[in-house]
Amino acid sequence: MAPTNSPTHIPVSLPLLAKMIDHSLLHPTMTDTEVTQGLQLALTHNVATACIKPYSIPLALQILKSKSKSDSHSNSNSNSTSVGICPVIGFPHGNSSTAVKVFEATSAVREAGPGVEIDMVINIGKALSHDWTYVTSEIAAVNTAVVAGGGILKVIFENDYLGDEEIRELCRICVDVGVAFVKTSTGYGFVKREGGLYGYEGATVKQVRLMRECVGERVGIKAAGGVRTLDDLILMRSLGVTRVGATATVAMLEEARARGIGEEEVLVEVRGRGA
Questions:
Q1: Are 132 and 123 in contact (CB under 8 A)?
Q2: Cα–Cα distance for residue pair 103/118, rounded to 1 Å
Q3: What crossing angle do the helices spanning 230-238 and 249-258 adopt, rounded to 10°?
Q4: Does the pLDDT value for residue 130 go beyond 60?
Q5: Catalytic residue positions?
Q6: 67 pLDDT exceeds 90?
Q7: DSSP class of residue 119?
Q8: Which residue, among 207, 229, 218, 232, has the nearest Cα to 4 in the 3D structure?
């Protein structure tokens, strides 16, 4: 078990913060033009990956990988980029059968190539039913397919729908299966509140701490949903999160520059949301 206490200050740099970010291009209304702009933004800021819907893989390959190849032939590495591709599977509700998820994952890995990162939503209803045999079998089947193709799997829990008991058991399963990351949310797990309005919390401090306690250092944690500011990003880093899903990439990294965070590591204060 990792400690639940987080530090008051942590070292960060602009490249480190950028490589925490999976830039999210998942909204259902995004046009090809908007996806193209988002992929170019991901390149400009040299984030970890662009998180995309599977049909956008050819476009992502065209924009991200052609740029990486041109950088590899450059005489200078000072401005080189290495932005990965992260397609989503069973997104956003996780309701596809295991066979369909395996097919989706296999197809995405084959198309995107080695190094691809797959974000898959669990079967939430099965988790709430405590059908852990089904949940384990599904995660294991998709992980096997992804790893066989040279990729890694991030497993999305959708914590807004779950209690601590389910989160703990899902973490245990993911550690046993050997997935690369557990992920808090899709960003689209809206829950009906009092008064009939829908909303979501996404990555909360309480649940991220719980996930870190459960997986220890064996599995990475990706926080998604509600990580919108530089303070949010730094806070998640202090809790042991090494990847976040975000649409506010530009705002967070521009704020980092404005605060004097550059290429070299500096010590920054951890603020906000229960820090």
A1: no
A2: 13
A3: 90
A4: yes
A5: 119, 183, 222
A6: no
A7: E
A8: 207
Q: Which residues have C-beta within 8 Å of that of residue 199, sequence separation ≥ 6? A: 190, 191, 193
CB contact set of 152 (below 8 Å; sequence gap of 6+): 116, 117, 118, 146, 179, 180, 181
The model's pTM:
0.92
Work out the widest C-alpha separation in the chain, in whole angstroms: 61
Least confident of 95-99, 164-168, 184-188, 234-238: 184-188
First to last CA, the chain: 20
Q: Is residue 69's pLDDT more than 90?
A: no
Encoded amino acid at 85, one letter: I
As given in the structure block, the two tokens for residue 209 are 């701490």
**Of the candidate ranges 86-90, 192-196, 229-233, the one whose mean pLDDT is the lowest:** 192-196
* Strand pairing category for 152-156 and 181-183: parallel
How far is residue 163's CA from residue 128's CA, in Å, rounded to a whole number? 9
Are 233 and 244 spatial neighbours (Cβ–Cβ below 8 Å)? yes
